[in-house]
Amino acid sequence: MAAAHTHEGGRRTCLLFEAGPARYAIEATRVVEVAPPDADRPAVRGVFPLEDLSVLMGGGPEQRPGLAVVLDSSPTRAVRVREGAEVADVSGDPHFQLTHDLGLRIGELVRGALFHHGRLYLELRPEAVGTVSVAPAPQPRVVTWLDSTEAPMLLIESGQYRFLLPLSSVLQISPLSPAFCPFPVMGGVVAGVLAHGQALWPVYGLPAFLGEPLVEEPYLVLAELAGMQVALCATRVGGVETELVPDEGPGAWRTRSGLRALAPDVTRLLGASNLTAPRGRPSDASV
Description:
Layout: E1 5-6, E2 13-19, E3 22-27, E4 31-35, E5 43-44, E6 48-52, H1 53-56, E7 67-71, E8 77-81, E9 83-89, E10 94-96, H2 100-106, E11 110-116, E12 119-124, E13 153-158, E14 161-166, E15 170-175, E16 180-182, E17 190-196, E18 199-204, H3 206-209, E19 219-225, E20 228-234, E21 236-241, E22 245-246, E23 252-254, E24 260-262, H4 266-269, H5 282-285
């Protein structure tokens, strides 16, 4: 996972704004104009057709009316964004390369991420906006389960599920903050990215591996899995569980208080070798 680096050699200004669920940065020299969109048509001054950046980035329609950002590209392109439009000097801010998993989806459109005043932004490639599509999601990953839960396990809730994680892998529990930037692409298992400890952490939603939609949750569980730094979304973080007993169904266990929870093998689930693995037998992913 690449460490952060800072821009050297003088002033570097970027336009910072929000579009769809995410925050973005683009070099100010590549922006021609920021203006209100035309009231009677999706255009800017009746000249440049206006496209929702959120849609171009693989998400849903943008909130109206939003703002129009005219890009210095060939041909000239205008995109609708939600709000923001702050011009800032980012020359001293940490900049991160995308992790492998993220680069597979948005690397053609996003060159990296920058951390400015406590907020994380995806840095766009203006020449690619509207001409390059977001890559399709990889094949679903194989979901396998832990055979043993003898070591202490941390109980978390995410979506409609309870999960058990090996306590030895958990580094920190963090509330959601602007250091997290949601992933702009709908579908898949990546919830976003997090700037933490001079590194960019991919953030996953465990229920998405089981076919559930991603939803914003108030906590992040930071973990190190076989040398990989990742974060997992959580609605609630419970206590440390021991003396678990097997329950019916793959990967299912009961706590001493009678709660049912799943124990996925998250190291194998998020391993780089599993990025494009086909889904296993139906029993491997059932709950």
